[in-house]
């Protein structure tokens, strides 16, 4: 398991002393004062269009700690990766499909070994589907089955990065101090019927991510006005492994299990018109428990997680889409 800020201008009134001005002439109308911060509303519309490319660079550092008796054992990991999102389709109802691809970077594992994350081809079969309010509906990686390492890379997993790069927007206009809540299926969690080990019939298990968002007000990022949003995302984690500790979805091979939750709290600066993130930073907390063979591989059966991360949207670059030639 691997792997981290208006200027308001007022015009000076110009007084003209001109002979012949009528005493009954209307006085110039004064400009309206700016709306108080608490009365301004925020009602973004994403405006995504086919062919648009967005790049988000995320830097993250994680400390994983086990406690045995009174002794704590800590392991560190980190990442610095860029995800490249290309809009593939926008449907009439506003649902959008994005290619979600690594644009390069590096991962640092608990042995301090650096693994280079290569840039993925435009035709790599991983997509993210969002609704018109940027809620993540699904993340599908049809290329995962072809990879042979089988190791679980939770913190660099696209399933965990996509919900941090696209904030779910409110259903109606909101003001400073307003809060909205979103509950969605966990991307890639397998919220479908699956064969539970030891059962003859498939069971339906639905795991959901919970997000709470609060509009903090406006701020400036350089020369750009932004809206600042507090975002708390809680994601349940559950996975099975084989006897070697490799991830598996085959109940016949499942010998170990890990479960728990991760909480990501971030302060995001977003574009007022679109709601798209420009910059965010936050903290990670979590607790993971281990069962079966995994518990025997770990110093203890409980692991606590703490970390921090920073995400920046990189400047858009016009490039040729190798899948279409445009």
Features:
two-stranded antiparallel sheet, globular, disordered N terminus, 13-stranded antiparallel sheet, mainly beta, Lipovitellin-phosvitin complex, beta-sheet shell regions, 4% helix, 2 helices, single chain, 17 strands, 326 residues
Question: What report would you give on this structure?
Answer:
The protein has helices at about 160-165, 295; strands spanning about 40, 55-70, 70-90, 95-110, 115, 125-130, 135-140, 175, 180-185, 195, 205, 210-220, 225-240, 245-250, 255-270, 275-290, 300-315. The radius of gyration is 25 Å and the shape is globular. It is mainly beta. The strands form 3 sheets. Strands 2, 3, 4, 5, 6, 7, 9, 12, 13, 14, 15, 16 and 17 form a 13-stranded antiparallel β-sheet that branches. About 5% of the residues lie in helices and about 50% in strands. It has one domain: Roll (Lipovitellin-phosvitin complex, beta-sheet shell regions), CATH 2.30.230. The two termini are about 40 Å apart. It is built from 2 helices and 17 strands.
Short description:
The chain has 326 residues and is mainly beta.
């Amino acid at each position: 398991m691997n792997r981290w800020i208006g200027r308001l201008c007022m015009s000076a009134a110009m007084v003209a002393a001109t002979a012949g001005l009528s005493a009954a002439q209307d006085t110039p109308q004064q400009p309206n004062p700016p709306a108080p911060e608490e009365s301004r509303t925020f009602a973004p519309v994403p405006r995504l269009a086919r062919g648009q490319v967005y790049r988000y660079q995320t830097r993250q550092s994680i400390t994983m700690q086990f406690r045995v008796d009174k002794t704590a054992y800590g392991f560190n990991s980190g990442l610095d990766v860029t995800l490249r999102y290309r809009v593939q389709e926008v449907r009439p109802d506003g649902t959008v499909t994005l290619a979600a691809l690594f644009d390069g970077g590096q991962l640092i594992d608990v042995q301090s070994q650096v693994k280079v994350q290569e840039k993925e081809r435009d035709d790599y079969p991983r997509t993210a589907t969002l609704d018109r309010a940027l809620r993540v509906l699904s993340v599908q990686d049809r290329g995962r089955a072809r990879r042979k390492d089988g190791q679980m890379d939770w913190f660099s997993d696209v399933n965990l990065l996509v919900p941090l790069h696209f904030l779910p927007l409110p259903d109606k206009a909101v003001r400073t101090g307003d809060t909205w809540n979103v509950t969605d299926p966990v991307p890639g969690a397998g919220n479908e019927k699956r064969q539970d080990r030891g059962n003859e019939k498939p069971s339906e298990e639905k795991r959901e991510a919970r997000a709470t968002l609060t509009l903090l007000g406006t701020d400036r990022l350089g020369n750009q006005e932004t809206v600042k949003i507090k975002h708390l995302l809680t994601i349940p984690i559950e996975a099975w492994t084989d006897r070697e500790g490799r991830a598996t979805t085959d109940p016949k091979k499942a010998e170990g299990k890990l479960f728990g939750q991760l909480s990501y709290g971030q302060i995001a600066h977003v574009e007022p018109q679109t709601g798209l993130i420009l910059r965010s930073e936050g903290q990670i907390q979590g607790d993971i428990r281990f069962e079966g063979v995994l518990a025997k591989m770990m110093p203890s059966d409980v692991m606590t997680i703490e970390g921090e991360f920073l995400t920046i949207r990189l400047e858009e670059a016009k490039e040729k889409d190798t899948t279409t030639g445009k």
